[in-house]
Amino acid sequence: MKKVLLIDDEAPARQLLREYLEDYPSLIIVGEANNGVDALRLIQEFRPELLFLDIQMPGMTGLDLIQQLDELPQIIFSTAYDQYALRAFELNAVDYLLKPYTKKRFAKAIERILTSGSENLNQVQALTQNLLDQGNKGQYPEKVILSKGSRLVAVPTRDIIWIKADKDYSEVITQNDTYLSNHGIGQLEERLDPSYMVRVHRSSIANMDRVEEIFRYGNGYDLRMTNQDVVRVSRSYSGVIKKWII
After folding, report:
1. Residues 58-90 pLDDT 10s
2. What is the CATH architecture assignment of 160-242?
């Protein structure tokens, strides 16, 4: 069973979703909203596993709503504006319904949701991060979308303590949790604000705002972070740390 929330400012669009969802008894509609403010309240109340989310809504758009969420359910985006759809398909989104859509097209989207695994989760993660980044044009992101088991979580970048390479992925450590990014350490270095997120090793990035102590060893350093983890600074990156020592 999945709890489902319908978010669209057009009543006929929500009615069509209700009709199409009648064929899927495992998807239970727990609420509807015609605006982002009500949607946010319902998400916090019911914690749905799946959103049907319109992007273009008055007041708070679907993009604005995503930026308000700390934990992301699965999302099927919909809109009448194909400039968003083109980018979504380029990213191989879990799905994106361009209005008007047929029942057959809807069924394909549901099939992807019901059979989703880690690959589809990564696709949702990529699309959602792209939409978040649209709200930060020319800036480094204030939040990044990370995986925690089967969940997607929006984590403020300033809450990240350090990042550790994990093959083609990266572990992202905060004060109370560890998340997985489907980006490698080099990609994250390019995406994050270098004024505080600093590459200190070929396998790690440290949030210099979260450094508690710096210890010298030989030609390198160790950073003790606010969560008491110790992050090794390799000799090749020691010059970066020297800039922080007065």
Report:
1. 888 887 887 788 787 888 888 776 665 555 444
2. Beta Barrel (2.40)
